[in-house]
């Protein structure tokens, strides 16, 4: 029987999940999103919306009453409320998985306990504690807010002893942890899926390039040797087995200078670095997530063609409405705008995928082409 899907969050990830759901009417009859922004992106592609804060208890209960199955596109949802609902509605990934992942300290502890490699870390309970523990790793060290962090906003790189107090004050009132700096050669990720029956599938490793802590470009596949790629796959699978959650997970990793692979963090949801799968794979990460939470057999994850994904961010000092973005027509070039009414600096407005349909496998040329395409994107005020 076809089900009503509830999604906490109706931004671009909720939008692309909704689009995938609309292609599976035999399994999903309707999509409802819970999001505080009126006319959020998911509504533009046919989702119904409950307008409320992601953590609003009554709204989450309402969503669960209207849905047969609940999932989320953000990790900052209210896991306590979700946990109390478990049993009345199917929630995937499970609230207990979410509870572990949404606290970076509990997440890292969980990974370490499962022999999955991560950077050294400790919890921080007070300023005195921080002053003491920073001696463990020395400077620089990374002070991190344990919860509700995104785009690097929860991180403070403590460069010297004089910055310790400033770093602590910046996160006043929040739970903290301290992490050893990883001198990585590359940031990579693996999008992994586990369905409710325990079947696991992983996409090939991709390379992520950040600018000001925001993902700028994903290169599929990552330019790493076979050993690194296999190790990343092994770690991703082991993580999925340990976590027991159903759904798609974005597993962010560091490759160290000596080719070791460490997990940086896990997102319990579809992930920006998986957007290339919309064109590069037989199964997009969005369809895969739905297949996983519905208990369907997982789709194929092979990379059919090399692909570059570029995020389109709101330009600096641009606020408000904008003339719709168009790109040159080009074989293998796919633009996806998120239909957000207003742009603002660094806001994720859309992305494009540049697919190597002729299988030249010339990554350097593809990157150069993607950079050129990106330069041609200009946000203009409507006249
Ligand atoms: P996101 O950018 O995924 O929303 P976030 O705000 O939760 O994430 P992290 O992913 O923990 O933050 O860190 C953001 C970036 O900071 C990483 O992509 C990496 O470049 C850098 N970083 C984080 N932890 C470390 C570390 N221990 N050593 C070196 N660099 C780090
Ligand atoms: Mg991150």
Number of domains: 3
Range of helix content = 25-40%
Low-confidence stretches: none
Query: In percent terms, what proportion of residues is strand?
Result: 25-35%
Could you please say which CATH topology of the largest domain applies here?
D-amino Acid Aminotransferase, Chain A, domain 1
Which of globular, elongated, flat, extended, rod-shaped describes the shape? Answer: globular
- Compute the number of helices: 11
Bound molecules: adenosine-5'-triphosphate, magnesium ion
From the N-terminal CA to the C-terminal CA, the straight-line distance is: 49 Å
Radius of gyration: 21 Å
- CATH H-level name of the largest domain... which superfamily? ATP-grasp fold, B domain
- Give the biggest beta sheet: 9 strands, antiparallel
Q: Please give the CATH class of the largest domain.
A: Alpha Beta
Describe this entry's structure for a reader.
The chain has 383 residues and is of the alpha+beta class. It has three domains: 3-91, Rossmann fold, CATH 3.40.50; 120-180, Dna Ligase, domain 1 (2-Layer Sandwich), CATH 3.30.1490; 184-375, ATP-grasp fold, B domain (D-amino Acid Aminotransferase, Chain A, domain 1, 2-Layer Sandwich), CATH 3.30.470. The protein has helices at residues 12-22, 57-66, 79-85, 95-101, 104-113, 127-137, 164-170, 226-243, 277-280, 285-294, 363-375, and strands at residues 3-8, 28-35, 48-51, 69-72, 90-91, 121-124, 141-145, 155-158, 176-180, 184-194, 200-202, 206-211, 214-220, 247-256, 261-267, 307-313, 333-337, 348-355. The strands form three sheets. Strands 10, 11, 12, 13, 14, 15, 16, 17 and 18 form a nine-stranded antiparallel β-sheet that branches. The protein has a five-stranded parallel β-sheet with strand order 3-2-1-4-5, sandwiched between helices. A hairpin with a 5-residue loop joins β10 (184-194) and β11 (200-202). The longest helix has 18 residues, at 226-243. The radius of gyration is 21 Å and the shape is globular. Residues 252, 264-265 line the site of magnesium ion. Residues 119, 142, 149-155, 179, 181-182, 187, 210, 213, 252, 264-265 line the site of adenosine-5'-triphosphate.
